[in-house]
Amino acid sequence: xxxxxxxxxxxxxxxxxxxxxxVADYSVNPYTGCTHACKYCYASFMKRFTRHxxxxxxxxxxxxxxxxxxPEKYAGKELFFGSVTDPYNPEEAVYERTRSLLLQLxxxxxxxxxxxxxxxxxxxxxxxxxxxxxxxxxxxxxLDNRFQQDMDKAVSIDRRLTAMETFYRAGVRTTxxxxxxxPGITDVEAxxxxxxxxxxxxxxxxxxxxxxxxxxxxxxxxxxxxDLLPLYQSIYADGDRSYxxxxxxxxxxxxxxxxxxxxxxxxxxxxxxxxPPVVVNYFYHEQIKKSAWRKHLTIGSTV
Length: 303
Fold this sequence. Notes:
This protein has helices spanning 92-95, 97-105, 125-128, 145-151, 157-169, 188-195, 213-224, 229-236, 242-257, 290-296; strands at 6-11, 16-18, 26-28, 31-33, 59-64, 78-81, 111-116, 135-139, 173-181, 201-206, 262-264, 278-281. By secondary structure, the protein is an alpha/beta fold. The strands form 2 sheets. It has a 9-stranded mixed β-sheet with strand order 2-3-6-7-8-9-10-12-11, with helices on one face. The protein is globular, with a radius of gyration of 19 Å. The model is unreliable at 288-303 (pLDDT under 50).
């Protein structure tokens, strides 16, 4: 049995910070850490800025902040919930930090985007849809329950897809974030087919391996998918991009066949709410300068 996570409260001035992300004016993180414990989590770098010695995924700091006195200052601004934590991690059901923040911001006309792996977000559907052009995205990189359970402690893929459909039917813009794509494992085409009638945008992001989780993933591949180990070594040791180039060509042809628009590094197409989703490839997003992103991206108001 897994040990309970280490949980503590910390006092902060705000859970909203100016963002360096190209897709938002502000990052919103009501927690530090995340108990979904994704093996590939890029946000594990946050340990450098905490005093935690526990492994990533085994601790969670609950942020306590003063009531927002002038929420109207965020009017028209883009607020991204979940840049380095899942705002709907399991503990949110108890501590309601994300819900509290949404209630404090309600009516301020901010544009919000929420990224999660949870269906707990359903609890706040009525609040979320009160924001103009709100958008909620779910990370889904497999339809295989066993692989999902190997990679994270979040709710099942079926529960994520059901939550996505509920928001979609309720009139909230939704995104299927196919990320990270594991070479030779993630069936991108199958996920697109499964989600295309309940989302407005499909983002594609490749698996990047760096830092402390690189050996974790490589060891997992060696143990569970030994036939794929040479492929992973060519990509993540030798820097070979040919797999991604071939996959991109394949997906361009596939989306054309099923009647979906396909774009690279740009989700700025304005589409009616009931239009089919746009598939956007962010395989090479690390090469994009912030100024270029800002020109094209407006969270929640486009797709």
